[in-house]
Amino acid sequence: xxxxxxxxxxxxxxxxxxxxxxxxxxxxxxxxxxxxxxxxxxxxxxxxxxxxxxxxxxxxxxxxxxxxxxxxxxxxxxxxxxxxxxxxxxxxxxxxxxxxxxxxxxxxxxxxxxxxxxxxxxxxxxxxxxxxxxxxxxxxxxxxxxxxxxxxxxxxxxxxxxxxxxxxxxxxxxxxxxxxxxxxxxxxxxxxxxxxxxxxxxxxxxxxxxxxxxxxxxxxxxxxxxxxxxxxxxxxxxxxxxxxxxxxxxxxxxxxxxxxxxxxxxxxxxxxxxxxxxxxxxxxxxxxxxxxxxxxxxxxxxxxxxxxxxxxxxxxxxxxxxxxxxxxxxxxxxxxxxxxxxxxxxxxxxxxxxxxxxxxxxxxxxxxxxxxxxxxxxxxxxxxxxxxxxxxxxxxxxxxxxxxxxxxxxxxxxxxxxxxxxxxxxxxxxxxxxxxxxxxxxxxxxxxxxxxxxxxxxxxxxxxxxxxxxxxxxxxxxxxxxxxxxxxxxxxxxxxxxxxxxxxxxxxxxxxxxxxxxxxxxxxxxxxxxxxxxxxxxxxxxxxxxxxxxxxxxxxxxxxxxxxxxxxxxxxxxxxxxxxxxxxxxxxxxxxxxxxxxxxxxxxxxxxxxxxxxxxxxxxxxxxxxxxxxxxxxxxxxxxxxxxxxxxxxxxxxxxxxxxxxxxxxxxxxxxxxxxxxxxxxxxxxxxxxxxxxxxxxxxxxxxxxxxxxxxxxxxxxxxxxxxxxxxxxxxxxxxxxxxxxxxxxxxxxxxxxxxxxxxxxxxxxxxxxxxxxxxxxxxxxxxxxxxxxxxxxxxxxxxxxxxxx
Length: 806
What we know:
By secondary structure, the protein is an alpha/beta fold. It contains 28 helices and 21 strands. Strands 3, 4, 5, 6, 7, 10, 11, 12, 13 and 14 form a 10-stranded mixed beta sheet that branches. Strands 15, 16, 17, 18, 19, 20 and 21 form a 7-stranded mixed beta sheet that branches. Strand 13 and strand 14 (568-577) form a beta hairpin. Helix 1 crosses helix 2 (14-46), helix 3 crosses helix 4 (66-75) and helix 7 runs antiparallel to helix 22. The longest helix is centred in the N-terminal third of the chain and has 33 residues, at 14-46.
């Protein structure tokens, strides 16, 4: 606080401002202390740990707990630490404590690549440790880049980093890869632009030119590096305007057509009255007859339009599958919805199919997260619950991958990765920002040299609150702040980290490097290059090491020029790119014969059966049954047993809800359950599914009792398993998964019983359709080694009849 007195004096009211700031700091500090205590108590009660706990608690155990220390000494042979340059003081203390227990460790790092200062890392720790621990080896070979790019990096960074106090290391090419590393390529792009939005347009045009000109280059070979995430999003959007997919996801996952269609189908399956879901299906799915003209008829006559929509085969297929889907868990119901609308095949006919498949996988992942959340909270997982969770969690669109996707990412995320060709952008950013806010916020301060015995000793956190809210520039205090020691140290830290970040960017390329520089035209000076970040590459004399070709006119296709780097000159291809440029034909579509620019030809697609198959869906879907190899005509239905009279119900209940409720009652009837208890369960389930007034709970209990008596008298030594899960891979590659309502294991084999709540008198004629379902169950049981299936039975509780299907 005392450090701001000079600032306050500059404003003419030193004591008043000093007291205000003291109050502010004290209040924030007290609030932070209370928050940390409350957070620690919350973690203790919940049995949780965070990343900081992992470091601090393990450090405490490794130093002070005798059993842990002995266990580490016994179990640790050697310790290996990678990326050591990104170490924080507490991590260094932990490494030293572990090294003490094992006595043998190897630490690998590159201080030139320490770029995570905002995470609390301290690159000086590596230099201190290297100097004081003794033996170390400097690796001076490049196993990544071509000879030309290694020479460029040496010419720029050996003098620039040496001038900043780093070991001036020049890398060489190992003998083993001299032939492989020969050559290399450097391009310089002048972006005719005045702002970041136009920078993105021009950069995307440059990438499009590369891909149109070169058949040896795939989109996945290219990475575009930016300083900030919003710049990545801009460039990715502009690449898409050329038909080029980029790795960055835009916006919410719920806004993508493929996820909108999947969730709309899921909502409609759950609730046929959801007309908004129905409208979304019609609007998005190209196979629906009203797809191209749906809004006008809906406005003119809503009831008529909705009726016509429901008459389409696509919607009829959803309606027919509703009963079977109602029994599925949310994840399985989502898969079924995707299958019913043919979404996996549909996205292959849309642009960027790989990205769209990734979005569907992200949707599945969100559903898995919802199920995990339900399990953690011990709550029921439902389709409406998942839809609500999906909307509230607002997951982002998936990132793109694969050979047809240009990787667009920040310099920080690119660390440790490599690509054949790398485009460096954001080169107009100031490498050492002179913002007066630089010393404000939280920073680590140390007194004296670091002690390897106690790395945290003498280290403290300094917090300077910015008292002016969102106002970034306060001229009245600029001069005293810029004269302070804290400001000078903050600028030096920023300068060093920016230089290291640039080094990381340059060394990501294996074969080709592109420097994308903004070229602005001024009235007084003409064309001027904006190269503030690159200008931070200075030698001992403080002069810039990189010298660009004159910013004169050139073409989009490029012309040969010379790029100066220190005492060396490099040949570069110079392009001038305008925001509206890029390769295009008269139709406006990107030119060239490259596969990534062409949409897939739908007629050439190879049709595959759905990856997953629900056995219970075969009755409602003849096409699916045919794909699985079943024809209803091949099955014969005969009367097996009469259990008693019919059970009636009142009115016209929802058959799907009624069937689900009855199935759940039978599933809940464990062996020996008292009839009174089962009756209460039945009442609760019938009420939950909204059919309590349609059928008496006692009648459902009677139906269960009849079937139990049949099983007990026919197979007295049987084991009964309810809702038995089965899985089977068919000969055509489909995976069938389902649940057998009742699996009766007898000494002579297994009996499969499936409940069907159909109440009609023509049941025997209809039941042939269930032959495929029962056959899949039989195959799954027999292939699993449970023994032969001796009978396949359909139990109709409302008719009081059991049929056999042969």
